[in-house]
Amino acid sequence: MRTAARALLCLPALLVLLTLAACAPAPIYKAAPQAVVATPQQVAQSPERYAGGDVIWGGRIVQVMNFTDHSEVELLSYPLDASQRPKANDSGSGRFIAVLPGYAEPLDYPAGALMTVSGKLNGSRAGKVGQADYVFPLVSAAQSHVWTAEEMNKGRNNVRFGLGVGVGIH
Questions:
Q1: In angstroms, rounded to a whole number, what is the distance separating the alpha carbons of residues 60 and 119?
Q2: Signal sequence: where (predicted)?
Q3: Which member of 26, 30, 63, 149 has the greatest number of CB atoms within 10 A?
Q4: pTM of the model
């Protein structure tokens, strides 16, 4: 009888956990079986080792540069959550350049926005971050997504547990 009572007491907690898990959006890109699990910073140290590898990386847009036949979006990389959204409150893990076909309207890729890219590693390029020399891994983007504030908050748990008295201002 005690086991049945325990099971009944645990049921509400289990239902809450299942409900919260169901709210999280699914990943937007399917990971390749042979996907590179290294960070842009690790790839920059030995780009030849990862050449041609599939990646799904994300980060904060630093700048957009348009050329005659393609565009380049420089990003400060962040780890991705289970829905492939950049976790911008984490520390950055290097920079990379997403190479997009055609023209990328800078207003659609604003500096500071969060973005996820799926594509293949295609070498690297030496450049500068401020006055410092830097090696940027190049990702030939097959797909890219700039996240809206609403998408970034979707599926986030707004329930807080704690003891004491608190005042929330939104």
A1: 17
A2: 1-24
A3: 63
A4: 0.76
For the stretch 45-83, pLDDT in tens is: 999 999 999 999 999 999 999 999 999 999 999 999 999
Please list, in sequence order, all residues whose beta carbon lies within 8 angstroms of the beta carbon of residue 84, skipping any fewer than 6 positions away. Answer: 27, 28, 29, 56, 58, 116
Residue linked to tokens 């409900």: 19
Q: Which residues contact 93 (CB under 8 A, 6 or more apart)?
A: 39, 40, 41, 77, 78, 79
Distance CA 162, CA 170 (A): 18
Residue with tokens 């809206």: 148
Beta partners for residue 78, in sequence order = 58
126-148: per-residue pLDDT in tens?
999 999 999 999 999 999 999 99
